[in-house]
Amino acid sequence: MTTTASVVAFDQVSKAYDAVRAVDALTLTLRPGQTVALLGPNGAGKSTTLDLLLGLKKPDSGTVRLFGTSPRDAIVAGRVGAMLQSGGLMDEVTVAELVRLACDLHPKPYRPSEVLSRAGIEQIADRKVNKLSGGQAQRVRFALATAGDSDLIVLDEPTTGMDVTTRQAFWATMREQADQGRTVLFATHYLEEADAVADRVLVLHRGRLLADGTAAEIKAKAGARRISFDLAGTVDEAALRDLPFLTSLTVSGRTVRIQSTDADATVHALYGLGVYPRNLEVAGLGLEQAFVAITTAEEAKSK
Questions:
Q1: Strand 61-66 to strand 8-17: parallel, antiparallel, or no bridges (unpaired)?
Q2: Which domains does the chain have, with CATH numbers?
Q3: What is the torsion angle, in degrees rounded to the nearest 10, for the CA atoms of residue 116, residue 121, residue 124 and residue 126?
Q4: Which of 80, 130, 138, 232 fits a disulfide with 91 by CB distance 3.0 to 4.6 angstroms?
Q5: Which residues lie closer than 8 Å to 296 by C-beta, 6 or more apart?
Q6: How confident is the model at residue 1 (pLDDT cuts 50, 70, 90)?
Q7: CA–CA separation, 68 vs 76, rounded Å?
Q8: Cα–Cα distance between 258 and 266 in angstroms, integer?
Q9: Considering the chain, what percentage of its residues have pLDDT values greater than 70?
Q10: pLDDT for 218-236, tens place per residue?
């Protein structure tokens, strides 16, 4: 496989729709062999970023380069495979016929039987595409994205509609692709997937890159820890809200869950209230909580 210093390079890329800036001076570089998760709330600019990367939209300013050339040239050369939410599948053809067509069109095709097997769709190969369930259609889209030997695989919400077993098999296949030196970039709302699969996480918000690092680094960036415990008797929620360094508090019956930017000081103050917690646990934030903390802090700054 051909190597290059960068697979994807965004340099000060911006894209606006009327008054809405979907992508705002975005600069980032992806390297060979990385599995990269693209996260962000609705309207963060994820889909526009992928559209710019694939040459489906042109930036208002800045440059997008794939393998040192334009997105169009990289795609024509067969270096990019994509699985997008937008765009339908051809009706009234079988899955096998559609996969065979994708292989015929790719400059470096795999055998159709190999593509069907990798996507786990051999059993529905003779089924008409318009008769597929949502999860089956997603697997067919994945097959089309991997019909040839591409160096970059771009996936937009790839596991939507898949059951748990199919999702696990899908990501096992994606890990194999990355292990072979390919770069995998995927946008997802399933943050547990990003935590388990990605070796790099990008957090977008209002078109800007808020965080870029491993899942562990993103969690650390949130700067908070989780504290949970049980209390006997009535819970004085007002007193708990006065604890120092508190960023959030939820009470479910006698179970209290807190997020704090200084867990040691918060727990010390908790005992100072004359409260004696049971089953006390202190842990780092999960990726989902860190994601919420980072984006919430950004929202607060913009007000």
A1: antiparallel
A2: 8-219 (3.40.50.300), 224-284 (3.30.70.100)
A3: -10
A4: 130
A5: none
A6: very low
A7: 14
A8: 9
A9: 97
A10: 888 877 889 999 998 788 8
